[in-house]
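Tutorial, part two.
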Amino acid sequence: MSLLEMVCTVSIMGGLSATALPHFADLPGDARKSVVMGMQGAMTSASTLMHMKCATQSGCKLHEGGSSVAISDTTVAMSRGYPQGGDPAGIQNALQFSGFNPVHVGDKTVFQKEGAPDAAACSVTYVSPQVDGGLPLITAELSGC
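Running the prediction step on this input gives:
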């Protein structure tokens, strides 16, 4: 291999790596986004399971008002048949999680990802059902991950 061929090869490899590196450089951000999306799925599952548990108990108000459901060694506050948002005894008790800081505001609980550049914008929000017979609103915000 001549010096000219080697210089051309190194130049081409340098150009390829310069265009490919930015695509792979945000691995921590992509990992945080994946964890937040996983938390959204876990929250949806926990909410549905608690709703089913409420449906099997005679004292649980499935479509209106508040009640509570016992699971394991804790109690989950319920609102309209789903875990209550905005209350540490609500959706927070229905989940087993780590790596998130729960923030309770009004009828919503925001689980902010620890270590994110903008934790408020790297989070999952759970809002209690707003009407009798309604569903909770569970959304993920990924722009700050």
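The CA atoms of residues 20 and 124 lie 31 Å apart. In part three we will examine how such features are distributed along the chain.
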